[in-house]
Amino acid sequence: MMTSLAILLLVQTPRYDPLYVSSKKIETVLETWTDQARGRDVPVRLGLPSDKEPHPVVIFSHGLGGSRMNNTTLLEHWARRGYVAVWIQHLGSDEGVWRTAPRRDAMQAMQKAASGQNLQLRLADVAFVVSELKTRSDQKDHVLGLRIDTEKIGMSGHSFGAVTTQGVSGQSFPGVGARFTLPEIKAAVMFSPSPPAVGDPATAFGSVRIPWLLMTGTKDESPIGNKSPEDRLRVFPAVGTTEKYQLVLKDGTHGAFNDRSRERGAGSRNPNHFRLTLALSTAFWDAYLKGDSKAVEWLKGDGARSLLEPGDLWEIGR
Q1: What are residue 315's phi and psi, to 5 degrees?
Q2: Per-residue pLDDT tens listing for the chain (318 residues)
Q3: Is 5 a domain residue?
Q4: Element spanning 41, H or E
Q5: Is residue 78 within a helix (H) or strand (E), and if so which, with residue range?
Q6: How far is CA 239 from CA 61, 118, 125, 247, 312, in A?
Q7: Residue 187: in which H helix or E strand, if any?
Q8: Helix, strand, or coil (residue 74)
Q9: Would you put residue 202 in left (φ > 0), alpha (ψ -120 to 50) or beta?
Q10: In which domain, by residue range, is 238 found?
Q11: What is the C-alpha separation between 165 and 158, in angstroms, rounded?
Q12: Is residue 3 one of the residues assigned to a domain?
C-alpha cells in the first residue's frame, strides 16, 4: 500500500508539461542594433517575460526571405516559459530580397541570396547580438537590463536559420574549422537542418560538443538549395555530442515548423506537427538551459513519445 507520505508527494509534485504556459502577459519590443565595426544594422524583436528577474536567452534566426516577425507562436511560448526571446533579422537574406524584386525575378533573387557571403554575414550577426546582450544586460535603463542570464544562451533557427545555428554552435567549415563557434551558446535547436555544402557530415559535425536538437520531416524539401529529406537526415548521425535528439515528422514539410496553419499549395497541415515543435523545443531548453532534471526525464522517457503520431520518429543520441 502507498503510504500517506508517498500520496502527499504525488499530490504536491506537478507533472512536467512543456506545453503549459501561464496567463501572464509578455512584453514585445522592436529595436535595431547597429554593428559599428561592420557598418551594419541588425533588427531584432524581443519577447520578454513579465517579471524582471534574470532569464535564460534563446536567439532565433529566420529562414531565407523571412524576418524577425516570423514564428510569433514560438517567441510567445518560450517567453511565457521564462526565456528572453531574441529574434534576429538578417539584412540581405531577409524578406527584402523578394519584396524589392520584380515578381518574375523573385526566385532568382532568393537563390542568389542563399550564398556563402550571406551565411558569413548571418554568423557575424549572431556574434554581434551575443556581444550586445552582454553589454545591454548591464544597462539598467535598457529593457534588457538585469533581465537576462548571459551564461545561459540557446540558439535556434529554421532552414537558412538552421544553417546559421549550426555554424555558431559547433559546425566545422573547410579551411577555417569551427572558427564561427560561439562558446556562449550552450544548446541549439535546428528546424530543417542541412548537411555541409562542401565536405562530409562527419567532418563538419563531429566536433559539436553542446546539446543539439534537430527537427525535420519526411517531406522536408526546399526549392532553393536542392536539399532533400534524405539530405537532412545525414546530419544527426554525424553530430559528435551524445546529448543529441532528432524528431522526424511523418509527412512533415519544410513549413511544418512555422506557425501558419496552411502552406501555399499544400492545404491544411497536421496541427500536431507544430504542437510537437513547441513541446520538444521547450523541454530541450528547460533541460539544457535551466538544468531541469524533469525535462531531461521527459525527453528521454515516455513524455516525448506520448505526443508522437504513427510514423513519427524520435531519436536520442547514445
Answers
A1: -115, 140
A2: 455 544 444 445 579 999 999 878 899 999 999 999 999 999 999 999 988 899 999 999 999 999 999 999 999 999 999 999 999 999 999 999 998 888 888 889 899 999 999 999 999 999 999 999 999 999 988 999 999 999 999 999 999 999 999 999 999 999 898 899 999 999 999 999 999 988 999 999 999 999 999 999 999 998 787 789 999 999 999 999 999 999 999 999 999 998 764 444 445 679 999 999 999 999 999 999 999 999 999 999 999 999 999 999 999 997
A3: no
A4: strand 40-48
A5: helix 72-80
A6: 20, 24, 24, 14, 21
A7: strand 185-191
A8: helix
A9: alpha
A10: 22-316
A11: 9
A12: no
C-alpha cell at 300: 528521454
Number of domains in the chain: 1
Supply the CATH number for residue 147's domain: 3.40.50.1820
82: region left, alpha or beta (phi > 0 left; psi from -120 to 50 alpha): left
3-class secondary-structure state, position 185:
strand
127 phi, psi to nearest 5 deg: -60, -40
Are the C-beta atoms of 216 and 249 separated by less than 8 Å?
yes
Burial class (CB in 10 A: 0-12, 13-18, 19+), 270: middle
Cell representation of residue 310: 504513427
Greatest alpha-carbon span in the chain: 74
Residue 212 lies in a domain: yes
173 found inside a domain: yes
Cell numbers for 72, please give them. 510569433
